[in-house]
Amino acid sequence: MSEKKFTAIPNIEEPKPPKSIPIAPTWRRIAAFLVDGLLLKLFFSFVFYLSQQELIMGYLANHPIIDEQSMKEYIKFVSTISFTLYQENSPIYQIFEIILWASYFILFWKAYGQTLGAKIFNIQILPGTSEASSPENPFLLSWGACIIRFIWFYIGLSFWALPFVFMINPQFKQRFHDFFSQTFVIFIPP
Predict the structure, then answer these.
(1) Alpha helices in 20-65 (DSSP H)
(2) 11 — phi, psi (to 5°)?
(3) Does the model's pTM come out above 0.85?
(4) DSSP state of 17
(5) Which of 70, 115, 154, 156 could form a disulfide with 108 if both were Cys (CB 3.0 to 4.6 A apart)?
(6) Nearest Cα residue to 141 out of 124, 117, 157
(7) Would you kindly state where each structural domain of the chain is located, as residue ranges?
(8) What is the pLDDT of residues 126-139, one digit of tens each?
């Protein structure tokens, strides 16, 4: 009796193990935050200017800018307004700024998993657990995860960003806000 030999079918590749997800480097996260901060400060400055436009225009009507000295006086006047209303703990502006920051970060994290700064630097936030993921799309964050992440993020900013220096989980480069919201930040190669 002759034996039949079975040979492997040629040109079929064996499955390869999945590639690991690259965790976002710290410098990309910092750069993305700086871009987001700049965008928010520009928007806040624009809103601040609009809210004080009548006062500024009244000053310019009575003190026209005709030379270098009048320009210096105008800059000093505008600086005094912003220092008085913003730096001296004007609750209206502080509340507006917190609402602006919360809205920006929470809405972008929920809708896209990344802010504009994160998109520029090719990073995205992913949920680490099913509790942190959205029921509609498991790759996006839930509302609860976004809110918890922002609260811890804002607490970190309130302490001069010192908590961002420390990693709670070095394997995934998680900071406080990542850890408590059960998320991690990945790098998306271009």
Answers:
(1) 26-51, 53-62
(2) 65, 20
(3) no
(4) P
(5) 115
(6) 124
(7) 26-187
(8) 998 888 888 888 88
